[in-house]
Amino acid sequence: MEITIFDEIKIENIPSGSGIIKSGQLYYVIGDDSPFLFCLNNDFKIVSKTPLVDTANFSEKRIEKSIKPDFEALELISDSEIVIFGSGSKSPERNIFMRILLKDSLIIEKYDISEFYSNLRNFTILQDSELNIEAAAYRDNQLFLFNRKKNLIISFVYKDLLAYIKGEKEFPKWEIVQFSLPKIDGIEAGFSGATALFGEPKIIFTASVENTDNAYDDGEILGSFIGIVDISNNNISKSFNHCKIPNPEANLKVESVAIEEEISTGKTKVVLISDDDKGNSTLITALLSW
Hints:
Blueprint: E1 2-11, E2 17-23, E3 26-31, E4 36-40, E5 46-51, E6 58-59, E7 62-63, E8 71-78, E9 81-86, E10 96-102, E11 106-112, H1 114-121, E12 133-139, E13 142-147, E14 152-157, H2 158-165, E15 175-178, E16 183-184, E17 187-188, E18 190-196, E19 202-211, E20 220-230, E21 240-244, E22 254-264, E23 267-275, E24 281-289
Antiparallel strand pairs: 1-24, 2-3, 3-4, 4-5, 6-7, 8-9, 9-10, 10-11, 12-13, 13-14, 14-15, 16-17, 18-19, 19-20, 20-21, 22-23, 23-24
């Protein structure tokens, strides 16, 4: 696997970029300490921003860490629907799910998913760890959630999960797979972003390395990886391909990945978004080959 960087673009007025998707000719971006959903054009210029939560605590550029919703996971469900998850790493502030319908004007549904996250925390594999949902990917009616601690992918049938969140069904069936990701300076990378390919049953994921021992505090940024995992027949493969994302100027904390164009089998243009933990966001355009 190889990634070739085309360009790096500093994005002003989007703090702490944590998620990016492309829908049609537009990009949608979230930040983990921002109350807005940003809409960007093909030149990566902001064309609109929509408040997702109360903006009363949005002072200057960033929401205070102790009360931020920590929006981390953003994914396209269809041309007319996207979803956003708070990380769940602090309760109840980060126990938020947003369903956004892309109509003539955005229709925003907001849900408290404290019960859902409580159920996840009770999974045996998470009882001695931390919940920290960093990414989501969707394909063939399956929603895949990526937990940074222990590098878990948890999958659900999306319509069943949505019905549960709306209070219409019981907790849905799930599948969970744990991964061992590459290390930098002896520290294992943690899932940070994901999205599914349209033309192949695969998920592209990003993973970053920080020198920190918990899901709440930031640490020294050591670098990031990009990888691909197969999800043929909606089964999560335990093997994956990966490569390190080059960082000639400074170590990158890549937070998310979007598909710009699927050129051919094994060759896709991607857009990454990175966060330097100081409130600055950078978009990186690249070609991924495998």
